[in-house]
C-alpha cells in the first residue's frame, strides 16, 4: 500500500513538471504586449497566417518543437542575432537562410527575453478580437431606426398630399381666370383696341426699329465676349480628375502615412519633368504590404477594395506573393496623365523645387494664411495629401504663372542669391525706394524667352 502511494506521488510530480514545462513553452509571455511588439517590429516581413518575405509565424513555437526539437532559447538567439547564430554553424539557422533566398533578417538585440516571449505568446495564442455589439442592443437600435423611418415617411406622405391639393387649387383658379379673359376679349371695347395694335413681328420691328437695332448690337457684343471667353479657357482643366487603372489614394500615402512626395516622384527635384513612378517604386513597399491594414477607409470603399488594388499591382509586375518571387509575366499599366504642359512651354521642376523652394513656400503662405503649405509641391498641385483622387488644383494658365512671378520674392537669405543679385537690389532701391523687393519678375521672370523657346 505504501509502495503504491509512493508511485502515485511520483506520478503527480512528473505530471506537474510536464505541465509546467509545457506552460513555459507556450504561455510565458503577455499576448497583448506581444501583439504591439509584433506589429512594431515584425509585420514588415512576417504575418501569422501566410508567408511574406519571411515564413508565417502563427504557431512557430509548437512547429519548431515538433519538427526540429528546438525550444524558445533557439528562437531568442535567432531574433537577437541570426547572423551570429549562422556563423556558429547552427544547421537549421543556415537551412532557413538558404530557403528564403539568403535574405538576411534584421537583428533585434534591443528586444529582451521577456519581449521575445511576449511575441511568441502572441504567435501561439493571439488575443481574441473585441466582441461585437450585443445582438439585443443592435436589434433595439434597428427597431428604433425603423420606427423613426416609418414616421418620417408618414410625414413626407402628408406633405406630398397637401402639396398636390394646393397645386390642384392653383390650376382651378387659373382656369377660371382664363375663362374671364376669353369673355373680356369678346367685348366691343377690346376689339377696337386690338385694331390699333401691331399684329406681326414685322409691324413691331418697323414701329420700334431703333430699339431693335440697339438690342442686336448689345447681343452681338455679348456673343463676341462669350466666344472670346470660351477661347481663353480652351485647354484649362482645373478640377480634372480622371479615374486610373489602379486606384491610388494620395490621402492614404502622403496624408495618413506621411510618405514624402519625392520618394515616389524622385525626378521632380533634379529633373525637368516629374515622372509617373514606375511599378517597381510601388513594389519597394508593397512587396511586403500585401493587404491594407490602415485605419482610414474612404467613404464608399472597404478593406477588400484596397486589397484588390494591391493585387492589381502584383499582376502588373508579375509578382507571386505566395512564393515571394517574380513570375516574369507583366502587364503594362496605362495611366491617365493629369498635368500635361504644352510643347511650346518650357517648365523645369528642378528650378522651382530646388532654387525656388523657400521663396515659393514663403510667398504662398503670405498670400494664403488660412491654407499654409509645408512642401513646395502644394503651391501648384494643391493639398495633395488630402486628395483620394488627384485633380488639377489650379488653372495653369500663362496669367496664373505671371502673377506668381510678379508676387514671389527671390530668397535673398540664400548666400548665392544675396551675392549674385546684390547690384540688382541696389539698383532697384535707387529706382523704387529702400523698401523694394527683388521678385522673380525683376530677374527676368516676365521675359518671353524664359518660357517660350
UniProtKB/TrEMBL annotation:
<keyword id="KW-0479">Metal-binding</keyword>
<dbReference type="GO" id="GO:0009055">
    <property type="term" value="F:electron transfer activity"/>
</dbReference>
<feature type="transmembrane region" description="Helical">
    <location>
        <begin position="159"/>
        <end position="176"/>
    </location>
</feature>
<keyword id="KW-0408">Iron</keyword>
<feature type="transmembrane region" description="Helical">
    <location>
        <begin position="214"/>
        <end position="236"/>
    </location>
</feature>
<dbReference type="InterPro" id="IPR009056">
    <property type="entry name" value="Cyt_c-like_dom"/>
</dbReference>
<protein>
    <submittedName>
        <fullName>Class III cytochrome C family protein</fullName>
    </submittedName>
</protein>
<keyword id="KW-0813">Transport</keyword>
<keyword id="KW-0349">Heme</keyword>
<dbReference type="Pfam" id="PF00034">
    <property type="entry name" value="Cytochrom_C"/>
</dbReference>
<keyword id="KW-0812">Transmembrane</keyword>
<feature type="domain" description="Cytochrome c">
    <location>
        <begin position="29"/>
        <end position="127"/>
    </location>
</feature>
<keyword id="KW-0249">Electron transport</keyword>
<dbReference type="Pfam" id="PF02085">
    <property type="entry name" value="Cytochrom_CIII"/>
</dbReference>
<keyword id="KW-0732">Signal</keyword>
<dbReference type="InterPro" id="IPR036909">
    <property type="entry name" value="Cyt_c-like_dom_sf"/>
</dbReference>
<keyword id="KW-1133">Transmembrane helix</keyword>
<dbReference type="GO" id="GO:0046872">
    <property type="term" value="F:metal ion binding"/>
</dbReference>
<feature type="signal peptide">
    <location>
        <begin position="1"/>
        <end position="27"/>
    </location>
</feature>
<dbReference type="GO" id="GO:0020037">
    <property type="term" value="F:heme binding"/>
</dbReference>
<dbReference type="InterPro" id="IPR036280">
    <property type="entry name" value="Multihaem_cyt_sf"/>
</dbReference>
<dbReference type="InterPro" id="IPR020942">
    <property type="entry name" value="Cyt_c_III_dom"/>
</dbReference>
<keyword id="KW-0472">Membrane</keyword>
Amino acid at each position: 500500500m505504501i509502495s503504491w502511494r509512493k508511485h502515485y506521488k511520483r506520478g503527480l510530480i512528473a505530471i506537474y513538471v510536464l505541465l509546467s514545462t509545457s506552460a513555459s513553452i507556450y504561455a510565458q509571455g503577455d499576448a497583448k504586449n506581444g501583439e504591439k511588439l509584433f506589429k512594431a517590429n515584425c509585420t514588415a516581413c512576417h504575418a501569422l497566417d501566410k508567408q511574406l518575405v519571411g515564413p508565417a509565424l502563427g504557431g512557430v513555437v509548437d512547429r519548431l518543437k515538433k519538427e526540429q526539437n528546438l525550444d524558445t532559447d533557439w528562437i531568442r538567439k535567432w531574433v537577437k542575432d541570426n547572423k551570429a547564430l549562422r556563423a556558429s554553424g547552427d544547421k537549421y539557422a543556415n537551412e532557413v537562410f538558404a530557403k528564403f533566398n539568403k535574405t538576411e533578417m534584421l537583428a533585434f538585440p534591443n528586444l529582451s527575453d521577456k519581449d521575445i516571449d511576449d511575441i511568441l505568446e502572441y504567435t501561439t495564442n493571439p488575443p481574441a478580437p473585441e466582441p461585437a455589439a450585443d445582438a439585443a442592443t443592435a436589434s433595439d437600435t434597428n427597431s428604433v431606426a425603423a420606427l423613426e423611418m416609418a414616421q418620417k415617411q408618414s410625414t413626407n406622405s402628408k406633405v406630398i398630399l397637401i402639396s398636390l391639393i394646393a397645386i390642384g387649387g392653383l390650376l382651378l383658379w387659373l382656369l377660371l381666370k382664363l375663362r374671364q379673359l376669353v369673355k373680356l376679349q369678346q367685348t366691343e371695347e377690346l376689339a377696337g383696341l386690338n385694331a390699333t395694335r401691331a399684329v406681326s413681328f414685322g409691324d413691331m420691328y418697323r414701329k420700334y426699329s431703333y430699339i431693335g437695332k440697339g438690342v442686336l448690337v448689345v447681343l452681338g457684343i455679348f456673343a463676341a465676349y462669350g466666344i472670346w471667353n470660351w477661347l481663353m479657357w480652351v485647354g484649362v482643366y482645373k478640377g480634372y480628375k480622371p479615374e486610373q487603372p489602379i486606384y491610388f489614394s494620395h490621402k492614404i500615402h502622403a496624408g495618413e502615412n506621411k510618405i514624402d512626395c519625392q520618394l515616389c516622384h524622385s525626378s521632380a527635384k533634379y529633373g525637368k519633368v516629374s515622372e509617373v513612378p514606375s511599378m517597381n517604386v510601388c513594389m519597394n513597399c508593397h512587396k511586403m504590404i500585401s493587404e491594407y491594414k490602415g485605419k482610414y477607409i474612404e467613404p464608399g470603399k472597404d478593406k477588400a477594395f484596397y486589397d484588390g488594388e494591391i493585387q492589381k499591382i502584383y499582376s502588373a509586375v508579375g509578382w507571386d506573393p505566395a512564393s515571394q518571387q517574380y513570375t516574369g509575366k507583366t502587364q503594362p499599366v496605362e495611366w491617365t496623365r493629369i498635368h500635361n504642359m504644352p510643347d511650346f512651354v518650357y517648365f523645369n521642376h528642378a528650378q522651382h523645387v530646388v532654387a525656388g523652394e523657400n521663396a515659393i513656400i514663403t510667398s504662398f503662405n503670405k498670400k494664403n494664411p488660412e491654407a499654409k503649405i509645408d512642401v513646395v509641391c502644394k503651391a501648384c498641385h494643391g493639398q495633395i495629401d488630402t486628395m483620394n483622387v488627384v485633380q488639377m488644383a489650379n488653372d495653369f494658365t500663362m496669367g496664373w504663372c505671371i502673377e506668381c512671378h510678379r508676387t514671389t520674392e527671390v530668397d535673398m537669405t540664400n548666400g548665392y542669391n544675396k551675392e549674385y543679385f546684390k547690384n540688382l537690389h541696389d539698383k532697384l532701391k535707387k529706382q523704387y525706394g529702400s523698401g523694394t523687393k527683388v521678385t522673380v519678375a525683376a530677374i527676368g521672370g516676365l521675359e518671353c524667352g524664359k518660357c517660350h523657346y
